[in-house]
Amino acid sequence: MFCFMRCSRLDFTQPDGLATGEAVALASSPAFSLSPPEAGWIGLAIEHPDADFPPVMMSKVFSPLAPLWAWSLALAWGMEPASCRIDEEGSAVYLIAKAGTAERLSFTLVRTQYGCRNEPERLLQALTWEEGRAQFLHRWSALWAAFFSDETLPWIEWERQEETSIPEPMRDMPWERLPDLAALATVEPAPWPREALIAWFWLLLSHHLHSRGHGCEFTQDPARYILREMAFARHVLDALDAARQALGLETSDNDKPCRALILRAQDIALYGPDEAEEPDDEFAGFSSGPLERAYYRAQQAVYELQAETVRALLSRLPIGEGCAFIDEQGRRARLVHRNRRRWVLCWEDGRLSEGDCFYQDHRPVCRWPVAEGPVFDEAALDAIDRRRLAFMRLGVSPLCVVCPCCGYPCMEEEDLEVNVCDICRWPIWSIVDRLPPPLDAEADEEGDPISPTLRQCRQNFLDHLDADPPEGREDDEDWNRDYWRSPQRLAFVRQAMAEWDAWLQNPDLKHTPEPVWMRMNRWREENT
Questions:
Q1: What is the domain extent for residue 237?
Q2: Could you read off the pLDDT of 30-48 as tens digits, one per residue?
Q3: How far apart, in whole angstroms, are the C-alpha atoms of residue 526 and residue 522?
Q4: 141, 177 in Cβ contact below 8 A?
Q5: Do 136 and 196 sit in the same domain of this protein?
């Protein structure tokens, strides 16, 4: 059984040696509730009229909340059998889920007493019941989401009971990114070997383990901030190692050095540096002292180990063109093109997107393999989407953004520099961290209005070479007719488009057409 996140465990088999034949079978599902943090403990109460099961006392010492979140996600994705162990003082509680009858899940809740030395754990109490997957996940995820969104809970007491305590970071698990896990509870199993699914599960989890901050910014309390981040970093390494183990790979040689850097950052945050430390490394210019340098070293080591593990595993996973995935919002996509971790996806509403398989800009995404996805018919694409797809397959855009309006790539290398499309003035910034909108959508994913729609913008571009209405945009302070509709700029746009079209016939990633704004700036300098 893999030890995930210290003494709490998530495992994709049923625990060995637990004889649950004397379990009390419940005729209905028990109720769950959570107590506020107190003296380093959170109580998970299980209530049912036919059973008296004492609350599960979860200690910050054993860090139980991360495996509970991961266990919940495993059930949403149909990864049972899956078990989660919560260690108490002198005892342990297991939550076990496996396939039940009539598309229901069979749950077993077991409390055991630790055995002495090599003796097995002794069964103290066990409950069993059956419940629909979606029904359980709906009330289960609602319980945790409400608990973690309550900012009145005494988290400081939970974190700072002792001067030397490492903060319990698991309230920051991304429950809010999946507000209702039941939305994912109807996915069909992907035709992957189980060990491949387990490895992909851990890879996804490793990319989601990041703190929300909760107002504790680095500049306000660097030590507290770094302790929280390093706690997450340890869990990332656990998840990466679990992914490797699932496919029979040994622990990376860089795992121990990385953990040592994490421990060093934690020690400095708790006790201060042992002695004056000279800023003699690559992070000297980014920090003002040994604590910050230790933090940056550890974070960089984690990123490198994460990238190494992804490289090692992606070639071993059954991921190829035609595979189907579902994201955290329940949207399905078909993998159209793959260049290592740079993917092109066709979504069920016809949208095309390009990006990192684990991230949308800086935000991690859940892309779970499923059996069925949208039908992709390249021949049915219009001219703009065919052009977009050609550029996406070539990976020409540094930021993985090919304009959904005109179909030409955005060539900026920093997302902070992205504003509007250099050719058609469509608002590229709006899709740096999200999918492009559907053609006829009148609001984006945040509910903000889209006017004109993308389809209307495309027609505007075909009519007069920019995405704006014929009369322009009076509500846009950046709109300047003398610039955007100037004969010189329109001539440069036509020239750039012709060069891109010719480039597609013989692509050369080392030499791409010059951006329109550079042509326009040079013309201005020459004519002033």
A1: 190-318
A2: 999 999 888 778 899 999 9
A3: 6
A4: no
A5: no
